[in-house]
């Protein structure tokens, strides 16, 4: 898009006509991850100041949808999947398969560009970790998290998410 060389980089800085032209001229890829897994990863990376996962989750819930960090805010509030028609939605846990498909569609040699990803091992690890972390939460926190991420859970197929159970 012709105006991308300007200093403005956020879509909100452009008018509707420019936004439509920009979005129409790119292949749009959205990478999504189970919101509970995002919370775990954020906590483990030390982005929360809390000593326990339960207190970290309480901080997230207390911060609300609009005041929280982009690391844990619901995806639908960040990427607007109802407004932007993404060409591809890539689910964490299926990265090797989906990235290979994207690279082939772009005419690139998928095999040589992809790192070694063991998706099944990642899924097993996150399942185990999710069970451990989920058990630390109170029933009220579990219910509040499910409400906090309800639009993500409705928009994306996180069928095995602890938050959708």
UniProtKB/TrEMBL annotation:
InterPro entries: Carb_sulfotrans_8-10, Sulfotransferase. It comes from the Eukaryota. One of its GO terms (biological process) is carbohydrate biosynthetic process. It is found in: Golgi apparatus membrane. Keywords: Carbohydrate metabolism, Glycoprotein, Golgi apparatus, Membrane, Signal-anchor, Transferase, Transmembrane, Transmembrane helix. Its EC number is 2.8.2.-. One of its GO terms (molecular function) is sulfotransferase activity. Pfam families: Sulfotransfer_2. Signal peptide: none annotated. It is a single-pass type II membrane protein. One of its GO terms (cellular component) is Golgi membrane. Belongs to the sulfotransferase 2 family. This is Carbohydrate sulfotransferase.
